[in-house]
Amino acid sequence: MSNQNDNLIVGLDIGTTKICVIVGSLTNEGLDIVGIGTCPSKGLRKGVVINIESTVTAIKKALHDAELMAGCEIKSVFTGIAGGHIRGFNSQGIIAIKNREVTEDDVRRVIDAAKAIAIPMDREVIHILPQEFIIDDQDGIKEPLGMSGVRLEAKVHIVTGAVASAQNIVKSCNRSGVDVADIVIEQLASAEAVLSQDEKDLGVALVDIGGGTTDIAIYVDGAIKYTSVLSLGGNHLTNDIAVGLRTPMAEAEKIKQAHGCCLAGMVNKDEVIEVPSVGGREPRRLSRQLLSEILEPRVEEIFMLVNRELIKSGYEHLIASGVVITGGSSILPGMPEVAEQIFNLPVRRGVPQDIGGLTDVVNSPIYATGVGLVRYGSTHMSLNNFRIGQENIFDKITRRMKEWLGEFF
């Protein structure tokens, strides 16, 4: 990897509200965060790029800041993808084992068999995540290499996304002067940063509430079983404040961050906040209770929809260690309390764990996806041949695009 120093891994979180670049360095002790760059994002809506120019400008600025802080030149990044077009489903494949002993070739073949399903032309596979392997009825095998048997089955979780959305992300990165090493769905990245292995083994739901989307991932027995994206997020809260208090969007965002609380019971009745008006009118003084009465129903709605996804997944009884909420919007006071009321499960805020370096800076749910992308990069760099991934990702998406367009013309 040509980020000047081979041990550097860069995560690029292209979010609806902010673009964030995090530079991690692999040391003998683990992962150290050595550089961070952020820039407000204007070119996305609900997690999907709608303006490449604005996105490229923001990425360049964030990259520049991160390069200055880390003292390196960034050439390639692991980037996240989100949006309502992301779909995840489970699949399985079965093959006969050639030499009665499982080889890497057998594992590759069984995963190919599992992904041999009809995928619409305008979509492409982003991830194939193995859940478990079964050899001759012996299930729960995580690492089948070298084991003996005659039949090998693989259960996998396949995530697909819209070709065009993936292509716009790759294009934005390329035009900012960096290669894309891999595209990762954001909830998978956030899970890498904030969940412990014990939680994944026991069963946990991760809810990443960003600006434009809420990303859900459910882990049971240490493997990902369900993924989903809702097109709802913190921007809806800001919008509700702007409409409810009749104040400009930029001011509504400031009010949300400074005074927002999504549980009216936690707010002192006498607290007053100053609200700027629209169109040059005088600012007004309003009770903070009113603000939380605007936020509470919307936060409840987001968690109700998440709860519906948990029930739809069929795993709601298996998430014994509860729910972990992360992402910028989860910082709002009262979030875990509202979530506990709706899920009837223990809820905690997730911040990036087990990292060194600039820990005090990234110790916030805002950076969960960015740190997770670096961690994903560090585990997957050694696993698959890195260079192959780099050349293929754009070609792969372009090929899908051509096939898809070819169907129409």
What Rg do the Cα atoms give?
22 Å
CATH topology of the domain at 197-351: Nucleotidyltransferase, domain 5
Proportion in helices: 25-40%
Average pLDDT over all residues: 92
- Tell me about the biggest sheet? 6 strands, mixed
Summarize the structure.
The protein is of the alpha/beta class and 409 residues long. 39% of the residues lie in helices and 29% in strands. Among the domains are: 87-161, Dna Ligase, domain 1; 197-351, ATPase, nucleotide binding domain (Nucleotidyltransferase, domain 5), CATH 3.30.420.
Which labels suit this protein?
409 residues; alpha/beta; Dna Ligase, domain 1; Nucleotidyltransferase, domain 5; 6-stranded mixed β-sheet; 5-stranded mixed β-sheet; 12 helices
Q: Could you explain how this protein is built, in words?
A:
The chain is an alpha/beta fold and 409 residues long. Among the domains are: 87-161, Dna Ligase, domain 1, CATH 3.30.1490; 197-351, ATPase, nucleotide binding domain (Nucleotidyltransferase, domain 5, 2-Layer Sandwich). 39% of the residues lie in helices and 29% in strands. The strands form 5 sheets. Strands 11-6-1-2-3-19 form a 6-stranded mixed sheet, sandwiched between helices. A 5-stranded mixed sheet has the order 14-13-12-17-18, with helices on both faces. A hairpin with a 3-residue loop joins strand 1 (8-14) and strand 2 (18-26). The longest helix is centred in the C-terminal third of the chain and has 26 residues, at 288-313.
